[in-house]
Design goal:
alpha+beta; 7-stranded mixed β-sheet; 15 strands; binds N-oxalylglycine; binds manganese (II) ion
């Protein structure tokens, strides 16, 4: 099999979101295949792999072949409640016994934060590089995942705004993103663990040299700015960045794996019926350095 990567929508979005064929993720990748996947990520920011019937172990092997993983410390589930190891994020609505969480379950309400535009782990000092999400069970309708191209979002800013955002530092916390939804039910330990961290608003991709807007609903402030002014500006930038021409909406099929580069994209989950099962597993590569080290 030879690996092939094509734009998903060559007419409207030739440079964002690619579909990969000729790879079997149940098998270890060759160094050439690994290099091709990285090259595809550099070009497209989002890659879709269909029909990959992988288990957690195979997902881990594939993910580790691309780089070091981060741990799932952004979660609120207690260790004894977890369905998966700390190498995986449980992106499901299930409990340990594979029962659908109650509508008002704290873990479910916290997880609804994924429906806001974000970049994974921007609330950690060392944020995420790639995320790999594997669909094990999907609901009959709804539950798409949307991706926005933050390189295009940066490129289409007017020159005055580009100058204004160039060196701004944002403050990111899960307390901010959940606060938008009215979720304030944090323990003191969680508040301490998720104290705001600093990230650049404009970052440079180390391989391509392209600049992108590093936005997320976790961003609740800009260093040196009054909070309401910062939030109004961040909201405005997010509105610009998530216009439909910058967005790819992924409609899941069972056993799809979608991988995205958190340095150059935002994403969000769309609603689905809370009583239907949705079971996805996410592995996440660490960026290894802060965005502060990726200045333009
Ligand atoms: C994630 C995430 C979106 C979804 O896994 O990081 O935001 O559609 N998922 O589940
Ligand atoms: Mn996410």
């Amino acid at each position: 099999m030879t690996i092939d990567i094509q734009p998903i929508d060559p007419v409207n979005r030739a440079f964002f979101a690619g579909v990969v064929s000729g790879l079997d993720l149940t098998q270890p990748l060759s160094p050439e295949q690994v290099a091709a996947v990285h090259a595809g990520m550099d070009e497209f920011g989002v890659l879709v792999f269909h029909d990959q019937k992988i288990n957690d172990e195979q997902q881990l092997v594939f993910s580790r072949s691309l780089g070091p993983l981060e741990q799932a410390t952004g979660d609120i589930a207690a260790p004894e409640e977890r369905r998966v190891s700390m190498d995986l994020n449980d992106i499901s609505n299930l409990d340990k016994n594979n029962r659908v969480l109650a509508r008002d379950d704290r873990r479910r309400l916290f997880g609804l934060g994924n429906q806001l535009w974000h970049s994974d782990s921007s609330f950690k000092e060392i944020p995420a590089k790639y995320s790999l999400l594997s669909a094990r069970h999907i609901p009959p309708t709804g539950g798409n995942t949307e991706f926005a191209d933050m390189r295009a979002a940066y490129d289409t800013l007017d020159e005055a705004t580009k100058r204004e955002v160039h060196d701004l530092i944002c403050l990111h916390s899960q307390i901010f993103s959940r606060g938008i939804l009215g979720f304030t039910d944090f323990t003191d330990a969680e508040r301490e663990k998720w104290a705001p961290v600093r990230q650049r608003l404009v970052r440079k991709h180390p391989a391509t040299g392209r600049l992108s807007l590093y936005l997320a609903s976790h961003a609740g402030g800009i260093e040196g700015w009054p909070v309401p002014e910062a939030r109004a500006f961040l909201r405005d930038l997010t509105e610009h960045a998530t216009q439909r021409q910058f967005v790819y909406a992924h409609v899941w099929q069972p056993h799809d794996l979608v991988m995205w580069d958190n340095r150059v994209t935002m994403h969000r989950a769309r609603r689905y019926d809370y009583a239907e099962v949705r079971d996805m597993r996410r592995t996440t590569l660490t960026n290894e350095v802060s965005s502060l080290q990726q200045a333009p």
